[in-house]
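Newbie here. two chains, one complex. Structure please?
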Amino acid sequence: MNPRDERRTAQALASEIKDLARKHSGQMRFMEVCGTHTMAIHAAGLKSLFPESVKLVSGPGCPVCVTEKRFIDHAILLAAKYDACVTTFGDLVRVPGSSGSLTTFRSEGGTVRVVYSPLDAVEVAVAQSPRPTVFLGVGFETTIPTVAATLKAALARGVENFYVLPAFKTIHPPLRILAAKDDLHGFLLPGHVSAIIGSDCFSYLVDDFHKPGVIGGFEPLDILLALRDLVSMTVRGTSAIVNDYKRVVRADGNRAARDILYDVFEPADASWRGLGVIPGSGLAFKGPYTRFDAAAHFPVNVPESKDDPRCLCAAILTGSKTPDRCGLFGKECTPEDPVGPCMVSSEGTCAAYYKYGAV
Amino acid sequence: MPKNTDGRILLGHGGGGKMTGRLIRELILPRLDRGQLGQLPDSVVLSGLGDRIAYTTDSFVVSPIFFPGGNIGSLSVHGTCNDLSCSGARPVFLSLGLILEEGFPMARLQAILESVAEAADEAGVAVVTGDTKVVPRGSADGIFINTSGIGRIERPLSLSPSRISEGDQILVSGPVGNHGMAVMLSRAEFSFDFDLESDSASVWPVVERLLNLGEGLKFLRDPTRGGIAATLNEIAASSGKGVRVDESAIPVDESVAAASEILGIDPFQAANEGKIVVVVGKGLGEEALHLLSDCPVARGAALIGEVTTANPSKVVLTTRIGGSRIMAEPSGELLPRIC
């Protein structure tokens, strides 16, 4: 689509949203679950196109943001005690732990390598052999099948010094908790995660909570279309799961990817920053893959960590507050000197507000 | 300085963004500023030396040393020439300081020096003094270069953010982000194949033409580290005015756009080494573009926005689809060792 058509279509969708919203009394609050959506919404300046009565709040779908401080502490203590090389996606290196981030650990002599795929992490392990190499396993259903496939390959290849410190999360358990909140009227569902888990599996939003959910893509027009459908259903008082991202997401998702995932992992409880422990919301290694578990293989005592009580990450991750309501935002907490991970992650809500602002 | 990291330099302190700014303001200026340094110009206009003379210095630590479209040698000439040019000074003399790591291949040094010579000849500057040091293996990464430059101000003009006012037009001298993206892609850890070269070049021919605008030329800056996002924010912050730019008007090569999507790097935050951002008076934008129409270094120049009274000290981007948002100053370790 040429830029002029794109702008015209966007304006048409925006005015359709405004017209629909006029038929509704009161606020409509929708949650974009996924951090990639959060960034895309802010980057395109979409909020400037919505009427006052339509609010979008961010959810818990940024993997870095829901990772606890204690996980960073764990990685640093483990690497220091066992002289391990840490491999990780770039976003995690600046997330503050209790006393410094992986960046400060590196500046103090620790080995931290940023990788762009789990396969790269295995290559680093081979190069570092026999030194233990620990990949920080953070992510949702989008990322985890790739990690699982990598572990299968590493097992077959007999890479002995490769480990993963797991903090994987799955999206349904927290979404069920959030769906029960009265002040959320519908969900912009994650496009990439849905490519793996499918659209059918969100039916509980409708059956149990009578709330609409729309799976959307990440281009500005994709998001406007999904919002139009959410507003339209809310105004009519109906609810359904609508797939506006059919070019990528199928009703039953990607079965092969899920099979690989559950060959390697099984559901376990997980602790979420801002949400606490949610039963069955994480993943643990199973069968022969337990040998990759860095936490089990390299025992280390990780003290409980405390979050700065003034940091509103918890309320922001659950859509109850927006970053501009936080007293630390932009003052004590900035991307170069963050208090919470939401300010660091390239998908973090606070980072999006800081980088793209509100006009 | 960040509270978690008291007492240590982080890569972000060299990123050219907010951390660099704090390092300069909190550590360097309180000790060394005797009046002129604190204005932090790209180059300083020396007074009391007869002719009007501009003076600047820059260090180059780019990794990799050779990249598509240039190497550390040509870059060290262009970078310093461009700092002089942005003060409205014709680059005339350069110094060349080499810091070499023990074991660095002689053939590579020779290739770099040939690039220095070629770039200097093309830019019309002479290398007139220099220094060479060798440090033990491991104390440097191959080669670092420092150049300082002296330029002649041919037409006294006040190129200062204080002259920027509402309605002024902003242009960029060509497609943005090429240098940053080319260097990132040529690093070993990326195995992408893009047809993409650094834009490294002297921008003096661009500035020389724009000087014909006289007082209508208000401000020039080469958007290196931090890209045009950093430069536009600098314009907004130092003038106290708002800046509005139109995303669809900012020229970005297709290959840069594709690479930026894959690397997750905003092309507006990626470094340029042969471009300038220019502020001209209200209504002078088209004339400025016309002056540049025969200038090869300014191919693809475009008007990208204007100065506003709304949103003081902020840069607001009108997005492709007509939304509005802030274009923030990049912070920290975005792209280490890009120049």
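Moderator note: Residues 41-153 of chain B form a domain with the 60s Ribosomal Protein L30; Chain: A; fold (CATH 3.30.1330.10). DSSP finds eight helices and 14 strands in chain B. Thread marked as resolved.
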